[in-house]
């Protein structure tokens, strides 16, 4: 009976927060087939590690961390070339209006900009756009809050340099 309860808890949590997995897959995969494969891989790994989830963080923080780690591993294995596109320099206006509020061209530029970043920078920007605070981003990524702020400053500078080139 205990196993059935554990399974139901897991399924409930995943159903409530599956959008996290979809966002990570969308951020780190170029085509639908890769997204589906990564989604399944993340689900399998979440299930395998769920019994050891101690609750030191929220379920969503843990879910982001597992999802991002798997996406990072997959990226290292495939190492694809990125497309060169003109990029926006600030995420603040995109964050406040949400991607739905952006014109299609700006959305494309935003995602093209994020594609140019390394895996950790992509994760930080994705979480920032999800309106996660520095504390939660730090927990998910596994770095200090101060380093999150430093990384965001560097990411903005990096994007500005890319745009100017």
Describe the overall structure:
The N and C termini lie far apart (61 Å). 23% of the residues are buried. This protein has two domains: 80 residues, RNA polymerase sigma factor, region 2, helix turn helix motif (Rna Polymerase Sigma Factor, Chain: A); 81 residues, no CATH class. It has eight helices and no strands. With 165 residues, it is mostly helical. This is Sigma-70 family RNA polymerase sigma factor. Pfam families: Sigma70_r2 (PF04542), Sigma70_r4_2 (PF08281). Belongs to the sigma-70 factor family. ECF subfamily.
Report the mean per-residue pLDDT as an integer: 80
Secondary structure tally, helices? 8
Radius of gyration: 17 Å
- Count of separate structural domains: 2
General form: globular
> What's the total count of β strands?
0
How far apart lie the N and C ends? 61 Å
The residue fraction in helices comes out at over 70%
What is the H/E order? HHHHHHHH
Query: Largest sheet, described in full?
Result: none
Structural class: mainly alpha
Uncertain residue segments: 80-89, 95-100
What fraction of residues sit in β-strands? under 5%
Relevant terms:
single chain, 165 residues, mainly alpha, Rna Polymerase Sigma Factor, Chain: A, 2 domains, 8 helices, RNA_pol_sigma-70-like
Task: Give me a quick take on this structure.
The chain is built from eight helices and no strands.
């Amino acid at each position: 009976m205990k196993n059935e309860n554990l399974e139901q808890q897991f399924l409930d949590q995943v159903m409530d927060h599956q959008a996290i997995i979809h966002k990570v897959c969308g951020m780190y995969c170029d085509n639908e087939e890769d997204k589906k494969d990564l989604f399944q891989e993340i689900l399998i790994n979440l299930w395998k590690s769920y019994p050891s989830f101690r609750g030191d963080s929220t379920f969503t923080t843990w879910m982001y961390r597992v999802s991002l780690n798997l996406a990072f591993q997959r990226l290292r294995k495939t190492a694809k070339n990125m497309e060169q596109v003109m990029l926006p320099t600030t995420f603040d206006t995109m964050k406040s209006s949400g991607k739905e509020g952006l014109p299609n061209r700006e959305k494309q530029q935003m995602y093209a900009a994020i594609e140019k970043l390394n895996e950790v920078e992509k994760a930080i920007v994705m979480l920032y756009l999800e309106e996660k605070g520095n504390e939660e981003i730090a927990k998910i990524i596994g770095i200090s809050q101060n380093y999150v702020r430093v990384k965001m400053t560097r990411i903005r500078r990096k994007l500005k340099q890319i745009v100017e080139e």
